[in-house]
């Protein structure tokens, strides 16, 4: 199936990088001019980098456009479609797995120094065992016991590694 | 003489119980990470990086060296037994090892792989000990414009080694250099890209970039995959392996020949010295050369012991070669040595031409660890753990990745006792994940970040002392040499791409 470049999603990263580069370039130019009284300043190198970035993003976009035109004529499905087919057999939770792990990690970092290592890590690991393993642990308490035990064990081993072996002071509840 | 005495002292240091324990522990961790599909020894070293804040530098370097060596050869175990290379460097071993496994000769294939890894790794370590001081002497001759051109050469070669995605490699490398410009300027006391916050004033540390780029992004990739175990239960129903079959027959070893082992080691070592090459390229080039010059090229792709020996000898020898530019010039050629450079920087050490003169007592145990890992631990680990490895690598994904998440995130906290580093690791992890999904090489991002500040410093220094005249890069002989070398590499790697149709047929 023909998939134009605009709908292929390949443009997302180049456009994001273009935006980042533009902010970077504006900030560099606001700092000071690249060359002042014949001397190279702190903004010279960032300006050069921004120019290289614009050029290389331009080539990536150009290659992406010409590449999607070529692959569209071939009978084989494009990589994105093949990936979609491959993901059809993956549970719904895993399809957005990266997003869930990112959110869980963000919350973990947010509460880490507030509720302390032990509680936050135990809850985080317990959540991850669902995200990386079978989301439905099965009927009965045995599967739950396995996941809770794994979370407890990993939390304890982490504590032993950092606090006891490497003498790192981890945050505790109320400190 | 002093140099060799210091090297011998390195062996003595290695025999201290604590340092020795780090070598054996590092080797076992590296073997596990190298063998489990989806994990790499680089990830293991990345996870070790935060711990080096509270670890003796010698122990940290010894652990890194043995993880690196172990990761190269352990990938051959799953490559041979279940046709899943644990590490990319074992791709060629899978092509030859798995057909042997299907013929019931899996143990023999593993024996050949271990023997070649042992010889290649040991020769590589010896070459490192001999060549590193010479490279350091040569590095002393390079002046400021030449240093800029050398770093530019390294970065360009890293980019053009991304054969199918050179523009994406350039984007990732430039992004890495851009990230490195955050903080106080390298030459003047001017804050850059701090957006008014004091937190960014000291710049971005290598640690969150490494943890984010290699550990968190891997977690996000794995979170999209289903399955309960790293390797399916159906796959591990492989033929039982017996220890006595590990020893390769002398007739076959003679047939491969001493020359082949040495040649593979030299090829791997030379490729290791080059920026951006890595274990997979070392194995590939050595395998291609072995196939080209073989008396029995028809055996390749059907289970050739010679092919296994060529690939494994080269990728283990590469480990030592990769340390040469990092120690002598301060220029890491691949992500693993970039992380090892991070270990040194965290401990206030900066490699360069004088480094081996002043800090040899710190790195000599690492040289010794590379040699002992290759000579003793490679065969010993295969003999002891070989029969069980297929079962060891099939572990619960939920337990494995949850553990990695905890080590990575809490490790990030260790650096400054603040959750800012953890948040930064997550940010870089998401960025690396998005880039990986769109086939942008993360290794380029890291190497751009590591080499960026030196590139800028030498560029500006060279221009400053020459009144801003850029012609200095062409008139300075050492700079001109590296620019010409860049042109030569560009010609051979991009304009005249090497063609190896025989291997492509086998691989397909």
Automatic annotation (TrEMBL), chain B:
Keywords for the protein's UniProt record, in alphabetical order: Membrane, Transmembrane, Transmembrane helix
Positions of transmembrane segments: 20-48, 60-82, 109-132, 138-160, 200-221, 266-288, 362-385, 406-434, 471-492
InterPro entries to which the protein is assigned, alphabetical: DUF112_TM
A matching Pfam family: TctA
Superkingdom, taxonomy of origin: Bacteria
Domain DUF112: 21-447
Protein name (record): Tricarboxylate transporter
Lineage: Bacteria, Pseudomonadati, Pseudomonadota, Gammaproteobacteria, Oceanospirillales
């Amino acid at each position: 199936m023909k998939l134009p470049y605009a709908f292929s999603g390949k443009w997302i990263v180049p456009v994001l990088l273009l935006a980042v580069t533009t902010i970077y370039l504006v900030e560099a130019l606001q700092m000071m001019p690249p060359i002042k009284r014949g001397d190279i300043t702190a903004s010279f190198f960032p300006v050069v980098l921004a120019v290289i970035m614009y050029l290389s993003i331009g080539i990536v976009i150009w290659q992406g456009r010409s590449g999607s035109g070529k692959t569209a004529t071939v009978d084989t499905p494009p990589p994105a479609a093949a990936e979609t087919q491959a993901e059809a057999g993956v549970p719904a939770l895993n399809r957005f797995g990266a997003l869930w792990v990112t959110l869980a990690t963000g919350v973990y970092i947010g509460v880490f120094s507030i509720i302390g290592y032990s509680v936050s890590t135990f809850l985080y690991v317990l959540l991850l065992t669902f995200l990386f393993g079978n989301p439905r642990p099965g009927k009965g308490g045995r599967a739950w016991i396995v996941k809770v035990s794994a979370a407890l064990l990993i939390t304890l081993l982490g504590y032993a590694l950092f606090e006891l072996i490497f003498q790192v002071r981890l945050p505790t509840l109320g400190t | 003489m002093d140099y060799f005495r210091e090297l011998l002292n390195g062996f003595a240091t290695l025999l201290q119980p604590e340092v020795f324990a780090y070598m054996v522990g590092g080797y076992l961790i590296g073997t596990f990470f190298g063998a489990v599909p989806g994990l790499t020894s680089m990830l293991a070293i990345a996870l070790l990086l935060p711990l080096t804040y509270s670890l003796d530098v010698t122990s940290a370097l010894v652990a890194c060296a043995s993880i690196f060596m172990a990761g190269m050869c352990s990938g051959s175990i799953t490559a041979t037994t279940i046709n899943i290379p644990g590490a990319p460097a074992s791709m060629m071993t899978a092509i030859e090892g798995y057909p042997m496994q299907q013929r019931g000769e899996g143990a023999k294939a593993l024996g050949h792989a271990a023997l070649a890894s042992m010889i290649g790794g040991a020769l590589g370590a010896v070459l490192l000990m001999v060549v590193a001081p010479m490279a350091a002497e040569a590095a002393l001759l390079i002046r400021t414009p030449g240093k800029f051109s050398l770093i530019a050469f390294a970065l360009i070669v890293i980019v053009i080694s991304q054969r199918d995605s050179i523009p994406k490699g350039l984007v990732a490398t430039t992004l890495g250099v851009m990230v490195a410009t955050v903080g106080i300027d390298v030459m003047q006391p001017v804050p850059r890209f701090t957006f008014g916050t004091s937190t960014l004033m000291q710049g971005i540390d290598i640690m969150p970039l490494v943890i984010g780029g290699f550990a968190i992004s891997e977690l996000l990739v794995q979170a999209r995959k289903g399955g309960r175990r790293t390797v399916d239960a159906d796959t591990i129903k492989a033929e039982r392996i017996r220890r006595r079959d590990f020893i390769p027959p002398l007739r076959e070893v003679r047939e491969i020949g001493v020359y082949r082992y040495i040649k593979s080691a030299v090829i791997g070592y030379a490729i290791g010295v080059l920026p951006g090459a890595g274990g997979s390229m070392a194995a590939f080039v050595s395998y291609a050369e072995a196939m080209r010059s073989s008396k029995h090229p028809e055996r390749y792709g059907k289970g050739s012991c010679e092919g296994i020996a060529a690939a494994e000898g080269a990728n283990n020898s590469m480990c030592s070669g990769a340390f040469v530019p990092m120690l002598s010039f301060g220029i890491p050629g691949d992500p693993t040595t970039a992380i090892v450079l991070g270990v040194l920087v965290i401990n206030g050490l900066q490699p360069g031409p004088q480094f081996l003169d002043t800090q040899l007592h710190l790195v000599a145990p690492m040289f010794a660890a590379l040699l002992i890992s290759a000579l003793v631990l490679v065969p010993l680990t295969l003999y002891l753990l070989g029969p069980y490895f297929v079962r060891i690598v099939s572990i619960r994904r939920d337990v494995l990745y949850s553990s990695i998440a905890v080590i990575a995130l809490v490790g990030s906290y260790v650096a400054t006792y603040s959750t800012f580093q953890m948040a930064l690791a997550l940010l870089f992890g998401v960025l690396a994940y998005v880039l990986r999904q769109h086939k942008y090489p993360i290794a380029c991002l890291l190497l751009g970040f590591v080499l960026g500040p030196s590139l800028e410093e030498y560029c500006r220094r060279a221009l400053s002392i020459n009144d801003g005249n850029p012609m200095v890069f062409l008139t300075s002989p050492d700079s001109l040499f590296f620019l010409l070398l860049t042109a030569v590499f560009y010609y051979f790697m991009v304009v005249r791409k090497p063609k190896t149709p025989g291997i492509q047929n086998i691989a397909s």
